[in-house]
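Bug #77: duplicate submission created two jobs. Keeping one. Sequence:
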Amino acid sequence: MSVLHDYAAGITQAPLLPLSDDPTGGASRFDEVIGPEGTLRPAWKSMASATLGLTPTEVARVDAEIARALADDGVTYTHRDGARPWRLDPFPLVLEASTWNSLQTGLAQRAELLNAIMADVYGDQRLLADGVIPAAAVVAHPGFIRAVARPSIGTTHPLLMTATDLGRDADGEWRVLADRVQAPSGLGYAMTNRAVVSRLLPELHREAEVHRLEPFFAAFRDALLQCAAVDDTDPRVVVLSPGTHSETAYDQAFLANSLGFPLVQGSDLVVSEGSVWIKPPRWPRSKPVDRVDVILRRVDSEWSDPLELRGDSRLGVAGLVEAVRRGRVRVVNGLGAGVLENPALLPFLPAACERLLGEQLRLPAAPAWWCGDDGLDRVLQRLRDDPESILVRTLVGRTVSTSGTQLEAMIAAHPYRFVGIERLPLSQAPVWGPGAEARARTLVVRAFTLRHGPAYRTLAGGLATARDDAGAPLTKDVWVRKADAAESDQGLPSATPRAMEPSIPAFAPRALADMYWAGRYAERAEDALRLVIATQALVDRPAGDRSAASGVLLGVLRRLAGSRSLAAEADLRSALVDAGRSGSAAHALTGMRTALEGVRDQLSGDTWRVFSYADRAIATLRESTHPSSVADAAEQMLTGVLSLHGVTASMIRDTGWQMIEAGRYLERALQVCTLLSAVTASRSQTADRDVLDAVLLAAESLVTHRRRYRGYGRVRSILELLVKDAANPRSIAFSLDRVQASLAAMPDSTGSTRPERLLHEIIASVEAVPVTVLAARTEDGVREALVAFLAETSSAVARLSHAIEQLHVEGGPPALEMSSLSLIEEMTRS
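Kept job's structure:
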């Protein structure tokens, strides 16, 4: 039986039962899939043959594969308590072409209206002077930026992109719930949703004949390039992000990656001589050379310039407002756009539309009343008569949680700060949930509108959000069907290629630092995992000299990562799963993930499978107490880490790749030094042999040693292979040679910089030391020369790392987390 057939039967039999997420008490609702007569709506009826295949078993399979695909791609959003997995429902929201055509007309008009309002509010302010919009509703909003409120820096089109949160009322009519113009988010998530659903439901997607989203992205890229000065034939565009702590960091990185523009943070940019530049290494001693012409802003306006706006912000660029005043850089959306998200504007938009555009407002909003005028009495009366029928929000859009007389007192004290909005019975759609069934849940749809050429165009698609039985948010892909199969996608012509010279994107020092540490953490994770596998193999052996050999390897592990338990197996398990244990595999993976998230726009989507493999292995290990599960989990995690080598092998050999390589091989040299501490003392013949074989296994050189030396390991042969052999990729000599090659390729290297001088000394020291001296033992069995060599080499490599960071990378101040609502909360708080 089809899931949608069961869904239709359920809602037809009990149409007035309240939904679990229904604050209106079960009011009649418009269903997006099933019509009043209990049959599929036209959009779904046209896909009838494919919908018959949506059995509970099939939908459950697709739902599980969606979760796995999103995890493999590292799709997350950040909430107050940290990163959460992005959730996507298997059922798309499907809209007919006729429905969409009327809606997109209203959305285009609304974008044009908001653009005109912003130009007026920050320009001549005729709307405020004539009372069309109350001045108090505007100037009291924290998003009103006085520093840019002057006609001399105004622009005709300050809004390039708008987002509109929509819902359908009980009659199926679209209503605006909120406008998102500060830094509209969600477009990258919408594209991700489409990629996943279309791949896992191919038959349904083919039958639907929906608009592809890619042409809209091409138009977006073209529109950003057109924002630059007319005489600029090769403009530089960047995406300004608050950083990896942002709730929509994935969305920002996806956009930057898809558009081909660098993702930067405030610390990556600098204002010099009135223009914005990508900060060069060793600024301000070095002169910037890469000027920025257009900034796609994902930082709220008030945080964008600590010099003239919020002095406590570490997210913005000091002097950005002055650069905007001089016309040296275009910021989109324009600084101060956040004032348009003010819900107090909703009651006044119809009059503003007639004044500015000479038209009736086509797309109405949910009924709203500003408490700063006659709307106060209406709101207070509704709160007394039917408090569940109205929402009270502040000017920044936050819903007030208090109620009763306390709420009335708050409003009465400062009425201009509050807005009353009617709570609508929003439309519903099926959501897959526990019990292998589809249940009706309310929807909010986010639509995106772009100024492309002379007019605004709305994305034929979008992002829908609902909540599951537990109240947790999940999203839906939005499918807009074509009126005719021959219709061009998004109604856009093919993009005309721009004639531009190829250029090498500049790397900010912060990005180079992230790549350097990504390489170091990647190698640290790999070596920790190999050491756990080698140690576990000794722990699992029968009794005898096992305890002596395993104790030596455990000692090396504890030297790298400390200790959490005296019991060997418990300590090895902790070395895999305990992210709070510095030096553990989990800690290294966390550090690598953090570093790579800072440069996500530079990386292939395959990168994130590393962490997906590791997360699944750790989850399985936590559930299993069997001793073999430790080695199994370590091997699965190692497979993921090794896949990163394949990803980086396909990267262009630019400075970012060179920094990854330098970090990886510098860390490998350090790790080999620590691993060789296992052979600094001699033991019984059996224990010595076990230790040496384990060292070779942990260094991934066991097979090489057997082929080359045709026998079990001896200290001299192992030292020759792991210290001196420049042809062995696991040796100290090879690692240092690779670091040298990477440093030589860096633009700031001259052959005589301090890192290069230090590296030359280390290489000379390794080449000069005889293996016979290192392998020699004193009377008490200790190889004192080897102990001294390993300590001196480790210390020298640590100094080299510090010198590399000083010359090639800069550590800026930590990112300041923003307190704004998450994307999911924005779309579902209505």
